[in-house]
């Protein structure tokens, strides 16, 4: 057992030394900025359109300018009358009012309805799970989603996970906050009190256990 621990310590020291030498010899890119979600609590959640969403835009009495559109990676769509309309980050209702303002130049009193057929949403609204999850991935947020819901979607923990030392990272009032979440107690011991609400933009980091 002592030999096993010693080997792990050697590996850790070697990794730290390698990272130190690499950081000394290579320039570092600036850290990525975490963009906060517009959702600050569960009750205020509204779905926002994002790249990859499929939108059905219906203009009353004007079928020639109605249609189905896929939101491009730059967050825009192109319609038959107007090119490059910014849609990402808006609710369907907000987008409908924006399109009405644009179409008012060409049509008299346009009435627009926007529905979403396929949902992806902006990156800022997704929950990202990294580390020792069975299937680390970005998860599309759904209203009233909890930690348990997210962990079911990512397949739970790996056998090497330190689930009770996991961290939930959230941007609050412009500051990055970190909260401990007891995922192992929730999943393996059934402690429902360990279940918590999650919000769009949350990042869940699950470390590996050393023992």
Detailed description of the structure:
It is a single chain. A 5-stranded mixed beta sheet has the order 7-6-10-8-9, with no helix packed on it. Strands 2-1-5 form a 3-stranded antiparallel beta sheet, with helices on one face. It has helices spanning 2-25, 92-103, 147-153, 183-188, and strands at 54-59, 67-70, 76-77, 85-86, 112-118, 126-131, 137-140, 166-172, 175-181, 203-206. It folds into 2 domains: 54-118, wza like fold, CATH 3.30.1950.10; 123-206, Outer membrane lipoprotein wza fold like, CATH 3.10.560. With 211 residues, the protein is an alpha+beta fold. The longest helix is centred in the first third of the chain and has 24 residues, at 2-25.
Short description:
InterPro entries: PEP-CTERM_polysacc_export, Poly_export, Poly_export_N, Soluble_ligand-bd, TRAM_dom. Helices cover 23% and strands 23% of the residues.
What's the alpha carbon Rg, rounded to whole Å? 23 Å
CATH class of the largest domain: Alpha Beta
Determine the mean pLDDT.
90
* Arrangement of strands in the largest sheet: 7-6-10-8-9
